[in-house]
Design a protein that fits this description.
four-stranded antiparallel beta sheet; alpha+beta; transferase; about 250 residues; four-stranded mixed beta sheet; Ribosomal Protein L22, Chain A; holo-[acyl-carrier-protein] synthase; 6 helices; holo-[acyl-carrier-protein] synthase activity
C-alpha cells in the first residue's frame, strides 16, 4: 500500500534540504506504474521515447518522479500562493538522483561516483580543465589514489557552482575559477587572480549509504545548514544523520 507525501515547510534562508534516491532500490513494478502518472505529457513523451533502452527509461522516470514529488511536498504546505519553483534548483545525475531545495537563493547540486576510474592521467586532465592553482594543489599529492579522489571532489564542486549560475560547462569553463580549501571557512571560490569571490557557499558531502560525493553550492554569505533525506517516493522517507561533511 502506498503512503502519502508528508507536507513540509519550506527551508529557512541559507538552509538547504537535500533529497536523494537510489534507483536500484526501486524494484516494484506496481510502484513504477504509479510513478508513470506523475510526469507531464511532454515529459512522458520524452521518457517513453526511450523504450528501446529499458534501464535508461526507468532512470528518466525516477528522476522526474523525484522532481515532481519534491516540489509537491513543499508546494502543498506553503501558504504563499505566489511561490515560484525555479527548475534550476532541482538537479539529478547518474545513478543517484538529488534535489536541492532553497528559498530565494540560487542552488546547484552535483553528484559524482567517488570510485570512478580515470581513463587518463589525473594531472593531464587537471591541466586541461582546472585552474593553475588547482593543478598545483593536485601535484602536491604524492599518493595517486588520494590525488584521484581530490580531483573528483573538485569536479563535483565545480559542477555544482556552474549549475547554481544556471550555465553550462561551455559558458563557465572550469579553468576560469578555482575552489580552494580553507581550514577556517571550508571551500572558497576564487577568481583568476586567486582572490576570494564572495557570495557563494559550498558543502561537500559523503553519503554513508552511497559511493558518491554530493556537492551543494548556494548564493549567500551566511553559514549554510543542510538537512538530508533519502526517499523512495510514496514508500518511505528517511532523515539521514550519518553523512560526512568533507
Amino acid at each position: 500500500m502506498l503512503s502519502s507525501l508528508v507536507p513540509l515547510q519550506l527551508p529557512s534562508r541559507m538552509q538547504t534540504h537535500l533529497w536523494y534516491m537510489l534507483p536500484n532500490e526501486v524494484k516494484s513494478e506496481s510502484l513504477l506504474k504509479h510513478y508513470t502518472q506523475l510526469p507531464s505529457q511532454s515529459e512522458k513523451d520524452t521518457i517513453f521515447g526511450m523504450q528501446s533502452d529499458e534501464l535508461k527509461m526507468k532512470n528518466a522516470l525516477l528522476a522526474r518522479t523525484l522532481v515532481r514529488t519534491t516540489v509537491a511536498r513543499y508546494h502543498t504546505n506553503n501558504n504563499n500562493n505566489h511561490t515560484v519553483i525555479d527548475p534550476r534548483s532541482l538537479k539529478f545525475k547518474k545513478n543517484v538522483y538529488a534535489c536541492g531545495v532553497t528559498v530565494n537563493v540560487p542552488v546547484g547540486i552535483d553528484v559524482e561516483d567517488k570510485t570512478r576510474k580515470m581513463r587518463h592521467d589525473v594531472l593531464s586532465l587537471a591541466k586541461r580543465f582546472y585552474s593553475s592553482e588547482e593543478v598545483k594543489f593536485l601535484s602536491s599529492i604524492a599518493d595517486m589514489e588520494a590525488q584521484r579522489k581530490e580531483f573528483i571532489k573538485l569536479w563535483t564542486m565545480k559542477e555544482a557552482y556552474v549549475k547554481a549560475l544556471g550555465k553550462g560547462f561551455s559558458a563557465s569553463p572550469f579553468s576560469t575559477f578555482s575552489i580552494i580549501r580553507s581550514e577556517a571557512e571550508g571551500y572558497n571560490l576564487c577568481g583568476k587572480a586567486e582572490e576570494r569571490v564572495g557570495g557563494w557557499k559550498f558543502r561537500l558531502l559523503e553519503l554513508a549509504a552511497s559511493s558518491h560525493y554530493a556537492a551543494i553550492c548556494i548564493g549567500g554569505e551566511e553559514a549554510m545548514t543542510v538537512i538530508i533525506h533519502r526517499t523512495i517516493p510514496f514508500v518511505e522517507d528517511e532523515l539521514i544523520s550519518d553523512w560526512k561533511l568533507l
